[in-house]
Amino acid sequence: MLPPVLYMVIPCYNEQEVLPVTSGMFLNKLQELVKKGRISDDSRVLFVDDGSRDDTWKIITGLSRQDPHFQGISQSRNRGHQNAVLAGLMEARDRCDITISIDCDGQDDINAMDAMVDAYLDGCDIVYGVRSSRETDTAFKRITAEGFYKFMNRMGAEVVFNHADYRLMSARALKEFARFKEVNLFLRGMVPLVGFKSTSVYYERHERLAGKSHYPLKKMIALAFDGITSLSVKPIRLITMFGLLISFLSFIGIIWALVTAFTGKAVAGWASTACIVCFIGGIQCLFLGVIGEYVGKIYLEVKARPRYIIAGRTEEMEKAPDQKKD
Predict the structure, then answer these.
(1) Where are the domains of the chain?
(2) Closest by CA position to 43, among listed 53, 33, 54
(3) Could you confirm whether domain 6-231+307-325 is CATH 3.20.20.140?
(4) Which of 16, 23, 184, 318 would you call most buried, defined as having the most Cβ atoms within 10 angstroms of its Cβ?
(5) Tell me: the pLDDT tens digits for 225-277?
(6) Cβ neighbours of residue 307 under 8 Å, at least 6 residues apart?
(7) 150-174 tens-digit pLDDT
């Protein structure tokens, strides 16, 4: 059996500071796996420039000229991390046997790739990179991050705890994943839906080697909300259940009001009325907002706009997949 062809898919957005540092790490790991006979020398490091405003694409093209193991594609504009990862996976799926998606910042332990490849050789089509601990995070970051995964699961989105987008996927899994046509992407919740045999590899996450993080708390909250509304209708069901509860309590309130009116015990007062009106009004606005979010998601899905547009490729990537394998 020939060693599998591996493509490392690495999304990049304004990474001119860290890319010169981590690119060598990725290449060294690729060559190490080749020397061990675990992957083919036809394997590549594929950078995906997500519409960067700095010299990221210039660095990528320069790397590809220096070493054919470096390849790159450039999106026509910034579409976000999830779209960039998807673009890389779809570009690589017909050129390789396995892909490993990993961030550019060097925080994910690249040595976990050895165990990922071994798991693939043992028959797994999907291998999740999972953080073994969050000791390097601040207390706030740790609480919010772990709360994010727990909340996602409770809301009906099937996600692997403490797993982001560091994962191995086989060509077979990618072929089936390509049939998922969602415009609203939440990959860490979509990949488990593919099925096939899977496992997890645990690793320690390091500090960012250079540059600044592009995923602040605001983006994490937005990602969580997108994940919930893209993968689950549980919020709508909770609204229905809460609406039934309010209706039941309101029915009891009507009976109580009629009884007090007929017995002559009713007391005029505006405070209770105002509280009830404000409460019901606030709940209705909240519920309409959640429903509106789902309607907006439907609107985006119905338009079916392209999830990414490739503006440029490095020279080797311009070749057709069959030519590449030859």
Answers:
(1) 6-231+307-325, 234-303
(2) 33
(3) no
(4) 23
(5) 666 666 666 677 777 777 777 766 666 766 766 666 667 665 565 556 656 76
(6) 79, 83, 86, 87, 183, 185
(7) 777 776 667 787 788 899 999 999 9
